[in-house]
Design brief:
Blueprint lengths: L2 H17 L7 E4 L6 H14 L11 E5 L8 H6 L1 H11 L14 H11 L1 E2 H10 L6 E8 L6 E2 L6 E4 L2 E13 L19 E3 L6 H11 L11 H17 L11 H20 L9 H14 L6 H7 L1 E7 L6 E9 L3 H8 L2 H13 L7 E9 L5 E9 L4 H18 L1 E3 L14 H4 L9 E6 L6 H13 L2
Parallel strand pairs: 1-2, 1-4, 2-3, 4-7, 7-8, 10-11
Antiparallel strand pairs: 5-6, 6-7, 9-10, 11-12, 12-14, 13-14
Length: about 475
Amino acid sequence: MTLLQFLRQARQLHRQFLSGALSESPIYVIGNPSADLDSIVSAIIYSFCANNRLPLKAPRPHIPLLNLPNVLAGPELYRLRPEFATALWLSTNFPALRAEEQFENAQDSAGNLLGSHLVTVADFAQNLKEQNIFKQLLAEATLVDWNSLPIPSDKDKGSGSLPGLPGVTFRAVGCIDHHVDEKFMSSTESLPENQPLIIQPGPGSCASLVTRDLQNRTLMGDGQAISAEMVQVAKLALSAVLIDTSNLTAEGKVTDVDREAVKTLQSQIAGQLEAAKVPQDKWNLQAFYEGVLNAKQNSLDLLNLDEVLDRDYKDWTETAQSSGKTVKMGFCSSVKPIRWVVQKAGTPEKFLDAVRSFAATAEKELDVVVVMTAFTAADGSFCRELFVCVVRENESALEGVKAFVEQTTSRLRLVEWSPLDGENISELGDVCSALNGSDTPFWRRLWIQKNAAGSRKQVAPLLRTAVSKL
């Protein structure tokens, strides 16, 4: 079965489950709410390899569920995640194993294909309405690239629901993740036999951990003996690992798990090409990486500012120990520099207005907004910037942010901001002055972050801890 055949079948099985045609729940494989390349790819490759093969004693269908509550699969998904569409295209069309699976990497062609092959949270919610399903639905899930459902059940540990899909309660029956343990999952003994429960902070890509687990179970081929269909899966897995580790060059992010994943996947692809007597020069890892990277770097050009902030977004809520007050923090990641984001808004003041408006939306209601940028400067160096803003009156939020700054300035090597991408920004006015201020309730700071290893995966727990320990 090709990768696209599997995805189409999984979407059809999802509809059958909702119609009552299946005797038991399939297992939905759900990535985190940023729905970035790593999350989407991890969900797809795990679903493909575990489908009707896990759990061991009662194998069931696995369905990747893209964690996008406001985006239907289709042209809009292509617009918002072109790097995923590019990775899927490069993985399945060079060569296409079936003539009908050829598609163009363009919004109409790829968008239509995504709409007939994938399921998002928005699709799931729409399907429930279409089929007039109003009773609470129970389903099972494996979590990848996160380890906690955001709306936990009051009754059952390891169960919960997703924003945008309150009518479905998911029971987590497995997890593979590289973030800090949120203590949501049930114990290994409570899960079906031999289901994965891997929460291992460190690796740059969750897809590396997924690949290792699948390889250890021989669900992703046995050594170098993999099929042409599995080569498609291996290429898709590589796209996430390479992007999240900057082609294994990201300082402080790359671990042996990532290196071994790339080595194994590359070896399997090369082995299949050799077995099929295909010249090795038909596959170029660097060109593959650059194709996906270019799509990601150019993806923000298609979006408005609100979509830029929301594109790679996660939030957490913490309670200050002393006051008992809650603080909700939203983290926005961007592959473009702050200068570019401000220019997108028009002026620094309009950028700040957009941040406040973004934070105040009903589905977010944030106390703190953090914008983290990571990009390559004109001189080829990898750069990070950090913008932190308290957006509404909340003493615990302000004190928590100040504690975070005091505790982490040295660790993150935060220094006064100046343009890093070599471009003249004089037409934007004084960005540094506008984006630094202590006026309450709109305290804000902008820095260059010289600790290049400090991604959101490292920075978010630091701010959350600073707030919770007040």
